[in-house]
């Protein structure tokens, strides 16, 4: 049986033939499209290293079947910078040392972008920690991660006020 799925990934629409209908979105991104920013940590929905944003919502791509997201809009870590200009969340992670080995970082950043878009970050560190609790960091860089998310959220809120 030959199947295909059409996805818009980081603004580029492509139709991909699938040999196996069971392929996950994570494996499609990494193995077929060579977008290796999303990481395979646990492969069972427990670490968040594979987080990407699909149709505006952050998901664990290791648990998502590619075929079931036919027509979706997918944003991965490779698509968040504008050319040489980093995304404000990326800049905040650097400024606050929100990483050590970097393995969890793409997932942390995608999750942070997602939660800021969801408007649930606020300025409460506890809420940020709760909203980021699906993203584990073995290096324990949580303090910097929380500070980075708070700063990026504050910048986002300020830019929205300017526009209003
Ligand atoms: S690799 Fe997907 S949640 Fe761990
Ligand atoms: S920075 Fe190493 S796992 Fe998070």
Explained architecture:
The protein has 164 residues and is an alpha+beta fold. It has helices spanning 25-32, 88-95, 105-118, 125-131, 142-163; strands spanning 3-9, 12-18, 51-54, 57-60, 73-75. 36% of the residues lie in helices and 15% in strands. Helix 2 runs antiparallel to helix 5 and helix 3 (105-118) runs parallel beside helix 5 (142-163). The model has no long low-confidence stretch (mean pLDDT 95). The protein binds FE2/S2 (inorganic) cluster (FES) (2 copies). One FE2/S2 (inorganic) cluster (FES) is lined by residues 40-43, 45-50, 60, 62. The site of one FE2/S2 (inorganic) cluster has 11 residues, from loops.
Helix/strand structural class? alpha+beta
- Placed side by side, the strands forming the largest sheet appear as 2-1-5-3-4
Based on Cα principal axes, name the global outline: globular
Strand content: 15-25%
Low-confidence stretches: none
| pLDDT averaged residue by residue | 95
Helical content band? 25-40%
Number of helices: 5
State the distance separating the first and last CA atoms.
52 Å
Largest β sheet strand count, sense and barrel closure = 5 strands, mixed
Assembly state (oligomeric): single chain
Count of strand segments: 5
Order of helices and strands: EEHEEEHHHH
Q: Over all CA atoms, what is the radius of gyration? A: 16 Å
Bound molecules: FE2/S2 (inorganic) cluster
């Amino acid at each position: 049986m030959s199947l295909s799925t059409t996805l818009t990934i980081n603004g580029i629409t492509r139709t991909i033939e699938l040999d196996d209908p069971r392929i996950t979105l994570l494996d499609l991104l990494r193995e077929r499209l060579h977008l290796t920013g999303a990481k395979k940590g646990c492969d069972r929905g427990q670490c968040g290293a594979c987080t990407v944003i699909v149709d505006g919502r952050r998901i664990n791509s290791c648990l998502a079947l590619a075929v079931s997201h036919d027509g979706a809009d997918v944003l991965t870590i490779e698509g968040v910078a504008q050319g040489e200009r980093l995304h404000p969340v990326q800049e905040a992670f650097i400024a606050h040392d929100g990483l050590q080995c970097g393995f969890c970082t793409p997932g942390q950043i995608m999750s942070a972008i997602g939660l800021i878009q969801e408007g649930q970050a606020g300025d409460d560190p506890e809420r940020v920690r709760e909203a980021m609790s699906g993203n584990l960091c073995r290096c324990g860089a949580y303090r910097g991660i929380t500070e980075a998310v708070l700063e990026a959220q504050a910048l986002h809120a300020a830019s929205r006020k300017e526009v209003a």
